[in-house]
Design goal:
Helix content: 55-70%
Number of helices: 16
Strand order of the largest sheet: 1-2
Oligomer: single chain
Largest sheet: 2 strands, antiparallel
């Protein structure tokens, strides 16, 4: 670890200068030699770095979603060229180039903050070894060595011996308890962050190897933090724990306000957005208009949650526009079928006439003037009705057929019965 940290020694001076400037502010409040002054200086360093990395974080989100969108195409390429690894790699690179996707973009925040992490490790390790570094002179070095967080010095490690802890005016038991608690919190926050991503913000309609890899990392990363954490000074643990908490909060905000299409988070978001828009009759924020605009532009490619959202607006008498705004719709209520095609609500069914009683049917019942009734008795004699002669001619034949025995042919020679077997 010391060798790796020395590679980033060129950035130790800026990192130490930032820590010292924050220390001056917090030292005036809590005291220059307190753990609060130095600990909050490290926390402020993390916050400053993460604010500067927000553009990279946005790029990471876009790259991750683009990779999720490409997973079906990537799976087809892998199956098509499973016996030709070189051609498979060429087709993958071609796909990335055509879509403008970079797989490494999802790792940019981690790669960008790694130099600051190792530079801070180098600074704290120098403090533990009683060496000045960067802008930290002799007086600041003594102040940092006296600073304790819950009884553990900033430069102490879990693997330190009792003599090393005593040199920093601390107990090895206290050092190990504090570092163990911080390592557990660091690993737990990393696990929760990854689990939140996998359970809420992943498109569940696409099952790809990428999802399996992410699920595996959900368990691998916390173990890695636990293994390497025992070699981190307390100050570095403060740095990394603050980073994990920041990442967790930042991801919760993104999942809540801009979830991945097709995920459970999107279903919850669109449900909230439907209630909000239908209650106010319009969109209030630009982020809402951006999401509605994207949903309208998809057309037939909308997923189940997006179709449900459009149908919910239609039932409330609203219509989503191509610019992301919502207006009151006029005329028939439009809905979206399962295949994404717009349909119009069916006209109301014609009401069936009321059922008449037996006496009404016998006496004609209430009817409009001049309207004939099929049940009404006619005053004509039976013989005068058209078709009466024809029916009468058919009656003898029908009685003859009714008397015919089963198994006999109608009109013609009868089939002899087969002799019974004795």
């Amino acid at each position: 670890m010391d060798t790796i940290a020395s590679l980033f020694s060129f950035i130790t001076t800026p990192v130490s200068w930032v820590i010292v400037q924050f220390h001056k502010v917090y030292g005036a409040i809590f005291g220059a030699d307190t753990g609060w002054a130095w600990g909050l200086s490290i926390v402020s360093l993390v916050i400053l770095i993460r604010i500067c990395l927000i553009p990279l974080f946005v790029k990471q989100i876009k790259a991750t979603r683009a990779m999720q969108t490409l997973q079906p195409e990537m799976k087809k390429i892998q199956e098509r060229y499973k016996n030709d690894k070189q051609r498979q790699s060429e087709e993958m690179m071609k796909l990335y180039k055509e879509t403008g996707t970079n797989p490494l973009s999802s790792c940019l925040p981690i790669l960008a903050q790694s130099p600051f992490f190792f530079a801070l490790y180098h600074v704290l390790n120098s403090i533990a070894n009683n060496d000045t570094i960067g802008v930290i002179n002799e007086s600041l070095l003594k102040s940092a060595q006296q600073a304790h967080i819950f009884g553990a010095p900033l430069a102490a490690k879990f693997t330190d011996s009792a003599s090393d802890a005593a040199a920093l005016d601390a107990s090895i038991t206290t050092v190990r308890i504090v570092t163990a608690v911080m390592i557990v919190l660091m690993s737990a926050s990393q696990f929760y962050t990854q689990r939140q991503l996998m359970t809420k913000n992943v498109d569940t309609t696409v099952k790809t190897p990428f999802m399996q890899q992410q699920k595996m990392l959900m368990y691998v990363f916390p173990v890695m933090f636990a293994v390497f954490g025992i070699n981190f000074p307390v100050g570095v643990l403060v740095y990394w724990l603050t980073t994990n908490v920041w990442t967790m909060g930042q991801q919760m905000y993104v999942i809540h306000n801009n979830p991945t299409p097709g995920s459970k988070a999107q279903a919850a978001y669109l449900e909230r957005l439907t209630k909000h828009v239908t209650s106010h009759g319009k969109t209030r924020r630009r982020s809402e208009r951006v999401i509605i605009k994207a949903i309208v532009a998809k057309g037939r490619d909308r997923n189940e949650y997006e179709r449900k959202f459009i149908n919910g607006l239609s039932k409330a008498g609203l219509a989503a526009q191509s610019d992301g705004n919502v207006v009151k719709s006029e005329g028939a209520v439009a809905t979206v079928a399962e295949d994404g095609t717009p349909t119009t609500a069916a006209a109301p069914k014609r009401q069936q006439p009321k059922r008449q009683s037996k006496s009404q049917r016998q006496h004609g019942g209430p009817k409009a003037a001049g309207e004939p009734t099929s049940l009404e008795k006619s005053d004509e004699p039976e013989d005068a009705k058209p078709g009466a002669a024809k029916k009468a001619a058919q009656k003898p034949g029908s009685s003859a057929r009714s008397k015919a025995q089963s198994g006999q042919r109608k009109g013609g020679p009868q089939r002899p019965k087969s002799p019974s077997k004795k």
